[in-house]
Design a protein that fits this description.
Elements: E1 2-11, E2 14-23, E3 34-40, E4 47-50, H1 52-60, E5 64-65, H2 67-77
Parallel strand pairs: 1-5
Antiparallel strand pairs: 1-2, 2-3, 3-4
Length: 78
């Protein structure tokens, strides 16, 4: 099953995240099918960039959103 989730990047104590589409059976740091956005919680206000058309494409193909990505989608659309 495909999952749209966050991949932690950056150095220690300075994380940022990439929103990726990957197989749910693989670790989040494993190979991703596509990168569909960025999330940086350290900025004020937090930086969110999502390619919503690509996210919707993957959801139509059967991918599921993680809870955090659902929250980010609402935040990006507002």
């Amino acid at each position: 099953m495909l999952k749209i989730r966050l991949r932690r990047m950056g150095s220690r104590h300075k994380p940022f995240y990439r929103v990726v589409v990957s197989d749910s059976r693989k670790p989040p740091t494993g190979r991703a099918l596509e990168e569909v956005g960025l999330y940086d919680p350290r900025q004020e206000p937090s930086f969110v960039r999502l390619e919503t058309d690509r996210v919707e494409h993957w959801v139509s193909q059967g991918a599921r959103l993680s809870g955090t990505v659902k929250r980010l989608m609402k935040q990006a659309s507002a």
